[in-house]
C-alpha cells in the first residue's frame, strides 16, 4: 500500500510513468541498503495495481497465491541477509515494516511475520488485514491469546503489548492509515468482517 506489509505495499514513482509500482507487506519504497526488490514485493501483495487503474476499476488485490509468495519472499530475504534487508522505518508520508514475533496459540512456539506499520507517538500501529482476504491473520489470533510480543525495527528490537483499538481511537488511527492509502476503505470492503487496528505499546520488560 502506500498502504498497509498487508504485508506489503510500497510505492515509488518512475521517471517515465506517472503511475505507481507496488510491493508485499502493506508497505514499500527502496531503502538505502538496496531493498528495492523487498519493497516491490511488499507493495504488490497489498496494493496490486497502478493507482490510475485502481481509480478506474476500484480497489483490487493480486491472486492469493501471489500474496503468499510475496510474504514468503520478503521473510526469506530478511533471513538470508541476517536482518540487514527487509525492514525500514515509518515516515510521516509512508508506512514502515517491522518483524513481529508472537507466541503460537497452539504450539506455544515463536512465530514471526513482517508487517507494515505506522508510528503514533511511542506506539506502532498495524492493520490485521490478512492481505485483504477474509479471516483473521494468524499473528492477530496469536496476540489475542498472548498479547505480549516482540517487534524488530530497523533500529532495533522492542518488547510490546498488543491490543485492538476501539471507538474514537480506532477512527483516528484508521484515518491516519487512510492518509497513506486513500483507497483504504475500498480495500477494507473486500473483507466481510471489520479489520482490526492493532496497537503495539512498548513495555519495559527485558527482551526474551
Q: What is the straight-line distance between the termini?
A: 32 Å
The topology string of helices and strands comes to HHHEEEHEEHHE
Low-confidence segments: 1-34, 44-56
CATH architectural arrangement of the domain at 96-202: Roll
Task: Characterize this entry briefly.
This protein is α+β, with helices and mostly antiparallel strands and 208 residues long. The protein contains 6 helices and 6 strands; from the N terminus they run αααβββαββααβ. The longest helix has 17 residues, at 64-80.
What would the keywords be for this entry?
208 residues; alpha+beta; Pnp Oxidase, Chain A
Describe this entry's structure for a reader.
A hairpin with a 2-residue loop joins strand 2 (110-120) and strand 3. The protein has a six-stranded antiparallel β-barrel with strand order 1-2-3-6-5-4. It is 29% helix and 23% strand. It has a domain at 96-202: Roll (Pnp Oxidase, Chain A). The protein has six helices and six strands, in the order αααβββαββααβ. Helix 1 packs antiparallel against helix 3. Residues 1-34 and 44-56 have low confidence and may be disordered. With 208 residues, the protein is an alpha+beta fold. The chain is globular, with a radius of gyration of 16 Å.
